[in-house]
Write a structure and sequence with these properties.
Blueprint (H helix, E strand, L loop, with lengths): L8 H12 L2 H8 L3 H15 L4 E4 L2 E4 L1 H22 L12 E5 L2 H18 L4 E5 L3 H10 L4 E4 L8 E9 L1 E6 L11 H6 L1 E5 L7 H9 L5 E6 L5 H7 L4 E5 H8 L4 E4 L8 E8 L6 H14 L9
Parallel strand pairs: 3-4, 3-5, 8-9, 8-10
Antiparallel strand pairs: 1-2, 5-12, 6-12, 7-10, 7-11
């Protein structure tokens, strides 16, 4: 006997007969007509040179040879269902896995609260892990499968990454509530003179920010460059002469702390797109596809932010 001579679909038929002990019910179970099921049983009998199942008062009873094969066939079918078929689809209600997302601390504040709410409802046995990695390592993290998605603004996405826009965000400037020199607006002269905090994952001032300010001929007085958004309101509270320009969503969260207030920048800044990025290797991976759809649905109605 050679496995190439065996139609592996016949093992599904064998497993159904073993469970149902009826040609009619087994046919219904695998979606065959009764005639097709009988034909499949005859092919099994010919291959194994044994009746395999005989009709008795208890239904189609396996022969000793059928009983012997039954244990192995059941184990094979169970393994295929659990390890092959299950991997070909993703059932969020039963899946147990951890989704890993590359994002900044700002991304955690913006993305995680609504995402956690939906994930708990739709995929109750799945969990999340957020990681912050240098931009130059994101492609390798996604390529290797160490991370599922990268969320945020990656202005020059590496080759091999797909991307999808989620929503646009604009910018506001944070000022200490104890800074009496600044009211509801910030003049250009004040903006240029006041020492500023700039958030940059690379440790350098953002080229995108620079280009926007350069277009207006504005020169910023950058005092501190940091990769951490969460440090900004605390630093401004400790040093009320400092200011920082951040995405509106983040400014809204920070203003609730009561230590900083939000004012519009002295010049209009172009909005930036927040996107999700994934590697081409996982473009058709069922779990990755499901997660991307969930994130897109969660944030596609995210209100378009504007200066207030």
């Amino acid at each position: 006997m050679h496995i190439k001579d065996l139609d592996l679909n016949l093992l599904v038929v064998f497993d159904a007969l073993l469970r149902e002990r009826s040609v009619t019910r087994a046919a219904q179970d695998v979606g065959l007509t009764q005639g097709a099921m009988s034909h499949a049983l005859n092919r099994l009998r010919a291959f194994f040179d044994d009746p395999l199942f005989v009709k008795t008062t208890d239904g189609m009873t396996p022969t000793p040879r059928g009983e012997q094969l039954g244990t192995t066939v059941s184990e094979v079918i169970a393994a295929i269902r659990q390890n092959v078929v299950a991997e070909a689809r993703f059932d969020p209600l039963t899946a147990q896995r951890t989704f890993v997302l590359c994002m900044t601390d700002m991304g955690e504040l913006v993305f995680l609260p609504p995402l956690i709410r939906r994930l708990r409802k739709l995929a109750p046995h799945c969990t999340l892990r957020s990681v912050q990695v240098p931009l130059e390592q994101i492609e390798s993290m996604l390529s290797s499968g160490e991370a599922d998605l990268a969320l945020g603004s990656i202005h020059a996405a590496p080759e091999g990454l797909f991307q999808q826009q989620l929503f646009m965000h604009s910018f506001v400037t944070l000022v200490s509530v104890r800074n009496r020199k600044v009211g509801k607006t910030l003049t250009r002269a004040q903006f240029e003179a006041m020492p500023q905090i700039v958030v940059s994952l690379t440790g350098r001032a953002s080229a995108a920010y620079d280009n926007a300010f350069d277009a207006y001929g504005i020169k910023r007085n950058v005092y501190l460059t940091t990769p951490h958004f969460l440090a900004v309101p605390h630093l401004i509270d400790a040093h009320p002469d400092l200011i920082a320009t951040v995405p509106l969503e983040l400014g809204t969260v920070f203003s609730k702390l009561g230590t900083v207030k939000v004012v519009p920048p002295p010049v209009p800044l172009p909005p930036f797109a927040l996107r999700q990025h994934w590697h081409s290797r996982f473009n058709t991976d069922p779990a990755n596809v499901w997660l991307r759809h969930l994130i897109k649905e969660t944030f596609e109605r995210y209100p378009l932010v504007s200066e207030q």
